[in-house]
């Protein structure tokens, strides 16, 4: 048995949402994620795997009753998700057109052109494209 199994990374983010179907639809429409698996887990809640490109895996779960997202709590999430893409300008335009909450594009000190997006439940995503090694 190989670990991780084919198609999985050693470490993968797993995000919980109050309304996972709504979040999944936004991640697909605004940012281009594709759904590769959706099933009901042992606890009766949905588990969905979204991929971006050949190696970008994010797992999304429907949270339990009483769970509150960062947006509901009025707080910032405890982590950011950083994603490299091949055309950050096109993704920025796609996300803005889809109604996502995005910042303007900027150049980071590391040489990345990037923008930040906050999803429907307050998770923060940074999408970047490396333009130059600094």
Give descriptors for this structure.
single chain; 19% helix; 5-stranded mixed β-sheet; 4-stranded mixed β-sheet; globular; 134 residues; alpha+beta
What do these coordinates show?
The longest helix has 12 residues. The strands form two sheets. Strands 5, 6, 7, 8 and 9 form a five-stranded mixed sheet that branches. Strands 1-4-3-2 form a four-stranded mixed sheet, covered by helices on one side. The termini are far apart. It contains three helices and nine strands; from the N terminus they run βαβββαβαββββ. The chain has 134 residues and is an alpha+beta fold. Helices cover 19% and strands 36% of the residues. The chain is globular. The mean pLDDT is 95. β8 and β9 form a beta hairpin.
Summarize the structure.
The chain is of the alpha+beta class and 134 residues long. Helix content is 19%, strand content 36%.
Task: Summarize the topology.
Layout: E1 14-17, H1 20-31, E2 34-40, E3 46-52, E4 56-62, H2 70-73, E5 80-84, H3 88-97, E6 101-102, E7 106-107, E8 112-118, E9 124-130
